[in-house]
Specification:
The protein is an alpha/beta fold. Helices cover about 40% and strands about 20% of the residues. α8 crosses α9 and α11 crosses α12. About 0% of the residues have low confidence.
Length: about 775
């Protein structure tokens, strides 16, 4: 008190004023041992030196008549009380209780924000905020915290919990999923697809979350039903709106559908970019009818999916043929695609009349073609067959054949023709002239000729301009799914994902891993644009075909030669593979396999320099000449005999002449193909020797009732092409196919592989999964000792 009085007088003296009034002495009340009530507020706050706004938790405590924030390091505080009699209250904070509350928040998954930030960013206030242990927690991170059991229990433990509305942590249940299709600026054939989840009068695009689910392979992650949560939380477009809660099983079903649509192309932004062919299926499946565009797409999708029949267009009156019902269906399908700006693959089995269906389609479009001619590209050996078929079925069309060294003088006639025929072999040479024209229909016969997307022929074919593009091929995928990609790149560039992504999404999972889901997705994508009918499906129009395999034992000398070469080739191949790898040893492998196959046919095929012991014959040749052919000829059979080796045909020809049998022969050097075919069809000769390469396509030999495959080849589709020279429309007798196979050799092992390759070829259309690659295991099997 004395000190207070002395200070009061001294101030008066220095200031020259009257003595200050005496201070009022207040009673001080100390409050200790109080248990505070904890509370936590969750909301956005400016944080750190940059005052970045983020959602944090503020911890506070309610003491009698006051509320204080958690401040690390301060144990006491004082405040003026407005209680009666002006008593001053000193409240001692309960440090133990407050620290226990801090630990409780940490148990609930929160951390002091300062612990997760760099020292440079931390301010005094930052040290007292709490958040999930992430540099910048999202709304989903917070929702996981506040809906977890530990945090939800706080209120039951006496805490005050306040989740501010502006924190953006509200949860809305999705009320409806609305698909949308809108035209894309890049062209009339493209549409942007989006899925909107509606809630509380607002909507949010589901596509970003679907894209994340696809990229992170949620379908695999949640393959086990027990692993699927009850729901997923998806951020709203406006952060303050919070999230929508979507039933998990339903969301995964949507993810599967979108992934089947084509997965997500990179760089698309919001929404999924779909070609018209795919968009129409989506509009049909989801029942989109809101706009005229959606209604048109839905109607197109219904027809592409087979849900509605195609318009029953009659056969053109000027087509001189009686088209079978399935051929009329194919003709109408081609017309339907053309009318809707779509392009596709007519993939009927060989012999079912793809040529007739295409010619009828070209004839039907003649009036609406605006004077533009149509163009057919075909293998060289088949061009004359197209000309003959056109003269037979559509004689009213002006047909121009561009072949031979003098073809350039006919280039000026192109604008006046209805149909131009030329070959793949001439495409590169005549590309400048052919690319200068706009074509109505552009049809690629034996379209597997463009199966290599990098080949020059493929590039020139893709550069041609046409209103309607068609691929004709009974084997649209002979060896791998990359060939299918090449065909669709010609038909509709961009319809399938770019090559690398296509490989990652479809080719690798199907061919390497046997992924059923990827196979189903690819089938769903391309099936509407592929029409395939097998002979089994039109069996009523075809006689039966019977396959007979004839196992033949090598002679002793032939076996010794085979084994010596096999051991030598096996060592050579293994050395090359060890040094350079299998991929770089391709030519050595093929040469080794070729030599073993030649020995099976006839050792003399190895050549004079091979040192074949004199007198080493061929068991297969002896069986053919002495056993099989005599019996067939005596029975009056009409026979097609195929071999890949023209030199083998020469050996057979020599022995046939010795027997006095009449025969015909067709190889790549034959000039009068048409005359030979006509002669055989007229029944002049019972035996037709044909090289597989020259006679595998473009021949109609229904006079034959027997096919002999002298030497098997890797690809069953190629062999089927040979047998289909006889087993095709017009055949009225059963067809027997005889396959000659040397027992225990590479030929038997080729047959074992053929079934696997055929399985892969069927997978595209049948939904099966298979694979065949020339790996070291397959190679070892092929080069194994004769058994």
């Amino acid at each position: 008190q004395k000190r207070v009085e002395a200070v009061r007088r001294r101030i008066s003296e220095l200031r020259g004023v009257a003595p200050l009034p005496e201070p009022v002495v207040e009673d001080v009340v100390a409050v200790t041992g109080t248990q505070p009530r904890p509370g936590v507020r969750v909301g956005p706050r400016p944080v750190g030196v940059f005052e970045k706004v983020m959602v944090v938790a503020e911890l506070y405590f309610r003491y009698p008549d006051c509320e204080v924030e958690f401040v690390s390091g301060r144990d006491t505080f004082s405040r003026q009380s407005w209680m009666e009699k002006g008593k001053r209250v000193i409240l001692e904070r309960n440090a133990d209780s407050e620290e226990a509350c801090v630990r409780r928040l940490e148990e609930a998954g929160l951390r002091r924000l300062g612990e997760t930030m760099s020292p440079f960013e931390i301010t005094a206030e930052t040290r007292h905020f709490f958040a999930p242990p992430l540099p910048m927690p999202s709304a989903l991170d917070w929702l996981k915290i506040i809906h977890a059991e530990d945090f939800a229990a706080l209120e039951g433990e006496g805490w005050d919990v306040d989740i501010e509305a502006k924190a953006g942590l509200a949860i809305h249940d999705v009320e409806m999923v609305v698909p949308q299709l809108e035209g894309d600026p890049r062209g009339i054939d493209w549409f942007r697809f989006d899925l909107k989840g509606e809630y509380a009068g607002k909507s949010v695009s589901l596509m970003p979350q679907i894209a994340q689910a696809i990229s992170e392979d949620w379908l695999e992650r949640y393959a086990d039903p027990a692993a699927v949560p009850e729901s997923f939380l998806i951020p709203c477009e406006e952060p303050e709106d919070g999230v929508i809660r979507f039933p998990a099983r339903r969301f995964l079903d949507i993810v599967a559908k979108v992934q089947e649509l084509n997965a997500l192309r990179e760089g698309q932004g919001e929404g999924l970019l779909l070609h018209k062919a795919t968009a129409s299926g989506v509009a049909h499946e989801f029942g989109l009818r809101e706009t005229e565009t959606m209604r048109t797409l839905a109607a197109l999708g219904a027809k592409l999916s087979g849900g509605e029949p195609l318009q029953a267009a009659p056969q053109p009156a000027d087509v001189k043929a009686t088209m079978r019902p399935y051929q009329l269906d194919g003709f109408r399908w081609l017309g339907f695609l053309g009318a809707n700006g779509l392009h596709g693959i007519l993939a009927d089995d060989m012999g079912l009349g793809k040529t007739l269906q295409t010619l009828a389609h070209i004839a039907a479009r003649r009036e609406e073609a605006d004077g533009k001619p149509s163009l057919v590209l075909a293998p060289t050996s088949v061009v004359t067959n197209w000309a003959a078929e056109a003269a037979k079925f559509v004689p009213h069309l002006r047909v121009l054949v561009l072949q031979g060294p003098g073809r350039a003088r006919h280039f000026g006639e192109i604008p006046y023709a209805d149909l131009v025929l030329t070959s793949y072999a001439l495409l590169a040479r005549d590309s400048e002239e052919l690319e200068a024209h706009e074509w109505d229909v552009l049809a690629l016969d034996e379209a597997q000729h463009i199966k290599n997307a990098r080949a020059r022929t493929t590039r020139h074919a893709c550069a041609l301009q046409a209103a309607h593009r068609i691929c004709l091929s009974g084997t649209p995928m002979e060896n791998h799914l990359g060939e299918l990609w090449s065909l669709f790149q010609f038909l509709m560039p961009g319809f399938l994902p770019e090559s690398g992504r296509y490989t990652a999404l479809f080719r690798a999972p199907i061919e390497r891993e046997g992924c059923q889901r990827a196979q189903a997705a690819l089938n769903r994508l391309v099936a509407p644009l592929i029409l395939r009918r097998t002979k089994d499906e039109v069996a009523a129009d075809l006689p039966p075909k019977t396959h007979l395999t004839h196992p033949i034992d090598l002679s002793a000398a032939q076996t010794d030669l085979y084994e010596s070469y096999r051991a030598l080739m096996d060592k050579m191949v293994r050395t090359a593979v060890a040094a350079r790898g299998l991929a770089q040893s391709h030519l050595i492998v093929l040469d080794a396999l070729l030599k073993l196959r030649q020995i099976c046919c006839h050792p003399v095929l190895l050549g004079d320099e091979a040192g074949v012991p004199p007198g080493t014959g061929s068991a297969k040749l002896e069986y053919l000449i002495e056993d099989l052919l005599p019996q067939l000829i005596e029975e009056g059979r009409r026979i097609l005999l195929f071999s890949q080796f023209t030199s083998m045909l020469e050996i057979i020809e020599s022995r046939v002449r010795d027997k006095g049998w009449t025969y015909l022969k067709l190889t790549g050097s034959t000039k009068n193909r048409g005359e030979l075919v006509a002669r055989f069809q007229e029944g002049a000769d019972p035996l037709f020797l044909i090289s597989l390469k020259a006679g595998g396509t473009g021949l109609n030999l229904t006079a034959a009732d027997t096919v002999i495959l002298h030497d098997p080849w890797w690809n069953p589709a190629v062999e089927n092409q040979a047998t289909d020279r006889a087993h095709r429309i017009g055949q009225v007798k059963p067809v027997f196919v005889h396959k000659l196979v040397c027992r225990g050799t590479i030929e038997e092992r080729i047959l074992e592989l053929q079934s696997k390759k055929a399985h892969l070829a069927r997978a595209l259309l049948a939904g099966d999964v298979s694979k065949l690659r020339m790996d070291e295991e397959v190679l070892s099997g092929l080069l194994a000792p004769a058994r």
